[in-house]
Specification:
By secondary structure, the protein is mainly α. 47% of the residues lie in helices and 0% in strands. The protein has one domain. The chain has 1 helix and no strands.
């Protein structure tokens, strides 16, 4: 199984939880 990496760009004013949820969803999606 190869490791997948994603770059999440945080825009000014974005909520921290938004990025956390996005990363979590991407991890679950595989």
């Amino acid at each position: 199984m190869s490791k997948k990496s994603a770059i999440v760009l945080l825009a000014d004013g974005s909520e921290e939880m938004e990025s956390v949820i996005t990363i979590d969803v991407l991890r679950r999606a595989g």
